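Title: Comparing notes on inverse folding

I've been comparing how different people in this forum approach sequence design from structure. To keep things fair, I'm posting one structure and asking everyone to reply with a full sequence. Here's the target:
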């Protein structure tokens, strides 16, 4: 294997380089890595980094303080781009990858990974990555990010509360009408019990899940379309969650805390929390995961949550090292660690081989719920342009007003659509 310094003369322009693996004898390179959600560091990112550094002693991984969420991290990246203080690797939320490329691409502050994949060889790519998974990290046909985490929204149920409310643990809700009805019955169990929590504060993933599960989409042919029939059903369901189940408007952390305290019947969220839920509940009450409710059996879909690793390094030596790190993180060993530390679905085809995850999903059915929804999974939609974060903040305020009955569902939905179009046209 070649030393890292031996590779530098052959790098040239990033669009045509073919990277060679970094050897353990290479001079030390330190990569700054940035990701969202601080809790993910100890559960996912640090174990992956430790395993990588053990196999690649010439490369050190140093983490920047985690962003509170994808949106906040995205804004931090845009600020750092202006001051030329970017990290070497960033895990971009799928919905913001297009905006990231649109902003950083013209300034050559983000690496096109297409030639790097090609250099690895078609057989290697085919053995490791499904084309549909790779598509999550593509923008305009180019591979700008390598999918690291992937999830579909699922539901966590407290089976004690479900049973007390007359529900059937073996026949949990499949539709929104059934879910809201059960949540209302759970809420009636006591003043300190809530039927459900649906997070619309931390990002638009679960808003998109509502629209998609009702057969709608966010935009088509450059125009906002979520204000059609599917969007109408979605905001009506949101209003019903509060009106019929007295649902509190909580963020993810608040919802998890209440669920593990056995004060919440149904938690709508990501499969990424399966490990957290299991550790926190720790036998205090029986629980299980189930598929996300659907409002349209013909055209329903679900947004794929998670992130893709991108290379923002300027230094050619660091670009080589960053590619080695990303290959490891999205490879079978890295994915085993990421999956077992969270509940995310593996993005590498080999991760389910016996030497890695083996029969993990057969022994842990609650971890497999999200994977059963793969046929419904589509990309987490990202708005064109650079206003995605601002658009969501405006949308979230209006959705909260709709949920609490401060504005009618019809009027509120049209205001959301009009506000979105205005921001897109600025």
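Reply #1:
Here's my take.
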């Amino acid at each position: 294997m070649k030393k890292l310094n031996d590779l530098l003369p052959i790098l040239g322009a990033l669009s045509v380089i073919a990277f060679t693996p970094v050897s353990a004898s290479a001079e030390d390179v330190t990569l700054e890595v940035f990701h969202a959600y601080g809790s993910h560091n100890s559960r996912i990112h640090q174990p992956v980094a430790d395993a990588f550094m053990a196999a690649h002693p010439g490369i050190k991984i140093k983490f920047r303080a985690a962003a509170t969420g994808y949106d906040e991290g995205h804004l931090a990246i845009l600020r750092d781009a202006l001051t030329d203080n970017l990290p070497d690797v960033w895990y971009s939320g799928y919905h913001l990858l297009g905006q990231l490329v649109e902003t950083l691409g013209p300034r050559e502050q983000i690496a096109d990974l297409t030639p790097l994949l090609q250099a690895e060889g078609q057989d290697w790519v085919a053995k490791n990555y499904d084309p549909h998974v790779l598509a999550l990290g593509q923008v305009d046909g180019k591979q700008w990010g390598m999918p690291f985490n992937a999830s579909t929204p699922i539901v966590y149920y407290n089976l004690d509360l479900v049973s007390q409310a007359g529900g059937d643990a073996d026949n949990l809700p499949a539709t929104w009408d059934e879910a809201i009805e059960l949540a209302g019955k759970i809420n009636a169990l006591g003043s300190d019990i809530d039927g459900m929590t649906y997070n619309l504060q931390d990002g638009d993933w679960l808003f998109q899940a509502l629209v998609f599960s009702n057969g709608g989409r966010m935009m088509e042919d450059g125009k906002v379309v979520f204000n059609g029939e599917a969007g109408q059903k979605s905001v009506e369901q949101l209003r019903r969650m509060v009106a019929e189940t007295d649902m509190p408007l909580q963020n993810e952390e608040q919802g998890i805390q209440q669920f593990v305290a056995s004060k919440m019947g149904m938690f709508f969220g990501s499969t990424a929390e399966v490990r957290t839920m299991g550790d926190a509940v720790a036998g205090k009450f029986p629980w299980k995961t189930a598929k996300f409710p659907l409002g349209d059996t013909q055209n329903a879909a679900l947004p794929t949550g998670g992130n893709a690793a991108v290379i923002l390094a300027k230094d050619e030596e660091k670009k080589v090292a960053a590619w080695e790190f990303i290959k490891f993180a999205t490879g079978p060993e890295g994915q085993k660690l990421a999956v077992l530390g969270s509940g995310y679905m593996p993005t590498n085809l080999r991760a389910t081989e016996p030497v890695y995850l083996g029969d993990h999903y057969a022994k842990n059915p609650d971890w497999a719920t999200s994977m059963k929804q793969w046929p419904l999974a589509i990309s987490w939609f990202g708005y064109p342009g650079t206003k995605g974060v601002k658009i969501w903040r405006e949308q979230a305020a209006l959705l909260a007003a709709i949920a609490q009955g401060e504005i009618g569902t019809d009027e509120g939905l049209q205001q959301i659509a009009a506000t979105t179009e205005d921001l897109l046209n600025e």
